[in-house]
Specification:
The strands form 4 sheets. Strands 3, 4, 5, 6, 9, 10, 11 and 14 form an 8-stranded mixed sheet that branches. The protein has 2 domains: 149 residues, 3-Layer(aba) Sandwich (D-Maltodextrin-Binding Protein, domain 2); 115 residues, 3-Layer(aba) Sandwich (D-Maltodextrin-Binding Protein, domain 2). Helix 5 packs across helix 6. The chain is α+β, with helices and mostly antiparallel strands.
């Protein structure tokens, strides 16, 4: 099957277009970044990109089941498990943003301005202030659980609740409930005008807690396991995403005048650890 199966004419896809299927986290979808990247990729390569936006855990399960061609996610531990299982190959670092702790303006737990996210969670637990977790095995949920562990706290009902939904829906629900939650900065900025929530604990993009850094990786599904998936297009997409053009789109992407993501694929120094699980020598 030829890579350039068709062309984009007058903004309308012609018949016979090839399709690349990717699963990704909700943050790159909710912010609109993935739409810009896919439009540029589609125009260059004459293909259509179908996006399934779910939490990282669900995105990786779709790949394990052979339902997508590649994944773009943000939970390195889960990504490493995916690589160790043989489901994915050719991982690349793409970009990073950060997490922030947000909550109601009256801040009942008094966490505003704290430098440590773990300390903020201890305050929330001590006050038994409402906290809404995604509870969906996403990259955000995994990071939240790691932060509770770092805080030495096991959160529990009735003050700790789970939405079971994506980041956007969770933020809206937390706003209505007057609850705290952990969110990626990009989704919060994209929805901020609709929310009665404020950033109370900063991530590293604004000089905050380094534990709130949020890197993203892209991984192709292993064609040895799923030969019917479109491995050629998956590798073309990975190449585009990590190319100077793809990195420029990421670097220039803004919502409401604010930069949301920092590209990290281009480096003069070798970074071999991005291609393999971090504990590959075990």
């Amino acid at each position: 099957m030829a890579l350039l199966a068709t062309v984009l004419v007058a903004g309308v896809w012609a018949w016979g277009v090839e399709e690349l299927v990717m699963s990704t986290g909700t943050s790159v979808y909710d912010t609109g970044l993935i739409d810009q990247l896919n439009a540029a990729f589609g125009e260059r390569f004459g293909v259509r990109v179908k996006v399934i936006a779910v939490g990282t855990g669900a995105a990786l399960r779709l790949a394990q089941e052979g339902n997508v061609d590649l994944v773009l996610v943000h939970a390195r531990e889960a990504e490493d498990e995916f690589l160790w299982g043989g489901w994915g190959i050719n991982r690349r670092d793409v970009m990073y943003n950060d997490f922030v702790l947000v909550g109601p303006p009256d801040d009942p737990a008094g966490i505003a301005g704290l430098e440590s996210a773990a300390e903020a969670l201890r305050h929330i637990a001590a006050a038994q202030a409402r906290f809404l977790s995604r509870g969906d095995e996403s990259g955000t949920h995994r990071r939240e659980l790691a932060l509770w562990e770092a805080a030495g706290v096991t959160p529990s009902a009735p003050w700790y609740m789970e939405s079971g939904k994506g980041m956007g829906d969770t933020l809206v629900q937390a706003s209505l409930m007057g609850a705290y939650t952990l969110t990626d900065r990009g989704t919060f900025i994209a929805l901020r005008d609709r929310l009665e929530l404020q950033v109370l604990v900063e991530g590293p993009l604004n000089g905050g807690d380094p534990l709130l850094m949020n890197p993203y990786g892209v991984i192709a599904v292993n064609p040895a396991l799923y030969p019917d998936r479109n491995y050629v297009l998956a590798m073309a997409y990975i190449g585009f995403l990590t190319s100077p053009e793809g990195q420029r789109i990421i670097d220039e992407f803004q919502v409401n005048g604010e930069r949301l993501f920092v590209p990290m694929a281009l480096s003069r120094e070798p970074r071999f650890e991005q291609y393999v699980p971090q504990d590959w020598r075990r």
